[in-house]
Amino acid sequence: MRRQALLLGLSLSLGAWAQQVYQAQPTDDVWLYDNAFNAGFTAILRVWGNGQDAVDPINPARPRSEFSYALAKWRLQGIPAGRQYQVLQAQITVVQTQPPGYTRAEGEQFPLEARDLSDTSFVEATWSYNTNTTSPGATIFGESLMTNYRTDAPFAIPIPLNAEAFEPYFNAAVNQNGGELGIGFVSRLDPAGQGGTRFYRFYSRNDGGGRGPVLQVVYRVAGDVNGDGCTDDADLLSALFAFGETGANLPADLNGDGIIDDADLLTVLFNFGNGC
Ligand SMILES: [Ca+2]
Ligand SMILES: [Ca+2]
Ligand SMILES: [Ca+2]
């Protein structure tokens, strides 16, 4: 129950009813490291860097021993293709095993990064280090927070994603990649000097306790005020009639800044016909 409370405590409070929430664990996650054991099915993923770089500058797809990554991919089920989505909030949460091999200050200095992936061709069940070519990209969607840091129990590490940076990646996954979305976990945290224990260790989807990574995305069809999945004149009229209104959770307040103004109206206009 405590584990659920950890994750629920991080869940987002929802505003307007047209918003929807995707929340799931990955369909595949692997430990990408040349000496990884049981890389596809290990219950624990491990991530480190060389203290300077998070990604191997020589060959990101085949990290040397100074680098270790985790790759994960999600299948965004239930989100129809053929329309553009607005991402309001996004977060990945992983659960660090007990005890962490780093101090809170080290975790804050060398965060766990969530990045884009070159592709989502890797498959957990048939994973092979020798043939894999998937590599973490240069876009950092988010960095971990040490807000729940503790040494006496596993703790949740939230990685809030930048909604503006993540939105086009999310839309490309839904509309151009069959719903598959890949995330690379990397870090500059250097294991050396702490007996080789100073690195991120967090549960994979294969953990028997269900503590694998969780992706949560709050989204809506872009410009869709009334939540019927299509941005049309009904949404335009709603935004016009509510123009100037202020308050929390107003359906026509598409950017969620508490006022319905020309920014919201333009969002409807720019997305006119979306999803219809
Ligand atoms: Ca796995
Ligand atoms: Ca609509
Ligand atoms: Ca607004």
Account of the 3D structure:
There is one protein chain. The strands form three sheets. The chain has a five-stranded antiparallel sheet. The protein has 276 residues and is of the alpha+beta class. The protein starts with a helix and ends in a 6-residue tail after the last helix. Helix 4 (233-241) runs antiparallel to helix 5. It has five helices and eleven strands; from the N terminus they run αβββββαβββαβββαα. One calcium ion binds at residues 253, 255, 257, 259-261, 263-264.
List keywords for this structure.
2 domains, binds calcium ion, four-stranded antiparallel β-sheet, 26% strand, disordered N terminus, 276 residues, alpha+beta, five-stranded antiparallel β-sheet
What's the quick description here?
With 276 residues, the protein is α+β, with helices and mostly antiparallel strands.
